[in-house]
Amino acid sequence: MKIIKWIFRLVLAAAFAGVACLGAVALYRLSAETGEVSGTRSQNLTEIISEGIHKLTENDPKAAQLADRVKTKIEEQSPYGNDWNMTIRKLAHFSIYFFFGVIAYVILSILHFPFSLRWLLCLLACGGLALFDELHQGQTAGRVMSGMDVLIDFAGAFCSVTFLCMNGKISKWLRS
């Protein structure tokens, strides 16, 4: 019975690794886009988000007021001010690596890696992927390598993996 459970764990971990590989391939393809194509894609996404928020709030004054307050706070806190395209691009970096951190954590959890090793391996894997992505992007026409993007990517992975490790430790402590 233990062998069947171990085989099931390996198959499940492999399935999650497949999802991570698909995500990495998608990321590789996005970083291979020229600067013009990438800029147009993110500008279109920014417009879609803006239109969606406008549609959600146009008939509700309280929602519109809340959206304006949130917008003002984000513009005050964002290093990019009211450049929503750049803010959304950086949020995308953070979110993608947050996802990669979760996937890496799930894979190592399925394989029963200890918390501290799980945390370290997840961050090393995500940090390596972030560095590779920026190096690849730097070889693409109209794109540049950015240390800030690597830091933002790493921050996304760090947040997800640290949260999941802390949650696991707290859950383990509560069960004992």
Describe this structure as you would to a colleague.
The chain is mainly α and 176 residues long. It has helices spanning 2-31, 35-57, 61-77, 84-110, 115-138, 147-175. Helix 1 runs parallel beside helix 5, helix 2 runs antiparallel to helix 3 and helix 4 packs across helix 6.
Secondary-structure element string: HHHHHH
SS content category: mainly alpha
How many H/I helical runs? 6
**Computed CA radius of gyration, to the nearest angstrom:** 20 Å
Which characteristics define this entry?
6 helices
Give me the secondary-structure topology.
Elements: H1 2-31, H2 35-57, H3 61-77, H4 84-110, H5 115-138, H6 147-175
A few lines on this structure:
Helices cover 85% and strands 0% of the residues. With 176 residues, the chain is mainly α.
